[in-house]
From TrEMBL:
Homology family: Belongs to the universal stress protein A family.
Source organism, top-level taxon: Archaea
Protein name (Swiss-Prot/TrEMBL): UspA domain-containing protein
PANTHER family documented for this protein: STRESS RESPONSE PROTEIN NHAX, UNIVERSAL STRESS PROTEIN UP12
Pfam families: Usp
């Protein structure tokens, strides 16, 4: 059913669960895993000219670290990694076409946080424009306090 899974990563906390879900899914279907991190060209272009090279280098370093995290979480499984520069949603969808992906997995919010109510702007654009199904995975809220039986504390009070 899934031969090639592309997981989008920006290294943010909110993407870690999406990476884990994508890796688990790929493992279950013995699928090839591609991890892609996109350096957002609009961030670079919006910065002052004298800072662009430094910002691009910093963003590329962050992208490399994000991909290294995916490789670590893969626990020895092969992961094909790539860094692109451009508009994240466009690059992600184009990459999925290039590798003939069966699925794109992404977090619902990235480095820019909760500036959207339900989906981050990149995740929303990917869902709307992807040539393949998109699995969006939200980060779980910190676990609420539970009693000894695993039920929420103060349940029924």
């Amino acid at each position: 059913m899934f031969d090639t899974v592309v997981v989008a990563t920006d290294g943010s906390e909110s993407v870690k669960r999406a990476v884990d879900v994508a890796l688990d899914l790929a493992d279950r279907f013995d699928a090839e895993v591609h991890a892609l991190s996109v350096v957002d060209a609009s961030e670079v272009d919006a910065s002052p000219q004298q800072l662009r090279d430094e910002l691009r280098t910093a963003l590329e370093t962050t992208a490399d670290a994000a991909l290294a995290t995916v490789e670590e979480r893969a626990d020895g499984a092969d992961v094909i990694t790539a860094v692109r520069e451009g508009r994240p949603a466009v690059e992600l969808c184009e990459y999925a076409r290039e590798v003939d992906a069966d699925l794109i997995a992404t977090g619902t919010r990235g480095r820019h946080g909760e500036n959207r109510l339900l989906l981050g702007s990149v995740a929303e654009r990917v869902v709307r424009t992807s040539p393949v199904p998109v699995l969006t995975v939200r980060q779980l809220e910190p676990a609420a306090a539970t009693d000894d039986d695993g039920a929420p504390a103060n349940a029924g009070n």
